[in-house]
Amino acid sequence: MHIMNAIRIKLWQDLVNYKKPTSFQLKETYPLPPYSTVIGMVHTMCGFTSYHPMEISIQGKFFSKVNDLYTRYEFKSDKYDKERHQLNANGHGINRGVATAELLVDLELLLHIVPDDQSLVEEIAQAFEVPREFPSLGRREDIATIQEVKIVSLEKNVRFKKNISVEPGYGAYIPAKDVEEGLIIFGQDDDGIVGRRNALGTRYLLTSTYELINRGTAKAPKMFRNWQKIDTFYATDISVSAMKTYSKDEDDKLVFIRMKKD
Length: 262
What we know:
This protein is mostly beta strands. The protein has helices at 35-46, 121-129, 176-180; strands at residues 2-16, 26-27, 54-61, 64-79, 87-89, 92-115, 145-159, 164-165, 171-175, 185-186, 202-214, 223-236, 238-240, 245-249. The termini are close together.
């Protein structure tokens, strides 16, 4: 068993889009924010100017989905042509039109932030307790209402004495390896008792961190982000059974971070 400290944050958002990078005509959303989105929010809230390694557990639920219209701008290197373009930007033509974004409604999130450098725990908690600016998660306009910030002790690789479930109706991102090793129980029986079933969820490769790669030259650099991705299951109504080894906080909240052998 390995004990660390984590920052547990509960927050709420009214309408939010966590855009899937491969969606264009309809700006689809993930059911919960990807790891990179949460890591970015933490660094922004704390004013970090360099990357601080951390592990993130993401759980939550939403009430429904709706589609909303927004103004979409498209441009290439084409010269402005009043017959083709709606806007002129220093001689370059821009097309303006209408597109659709998928929004999650009434979203609740439960986040655990586990910095590798444990001396940052108090600083991160303070940044969320007394924000420097309105916190947002997703698009810039997706304001987040912070409901709870608590520093909790986190037990990693602890053997459970009883079944522990996520909050009713909650979903979570689960490292795929944990699912493949049979650590997770999926679904509930009709009588409310958690039952063992096949993996019931959606598999995602979620972005986490990146490094900048120069694919140009020293004199004419062209920087690209080389993303690290986490193989993940998204599922709801999940539990970890008694006598399994997993991670939880001091209030018996499951923590879905990649398991590391001591």
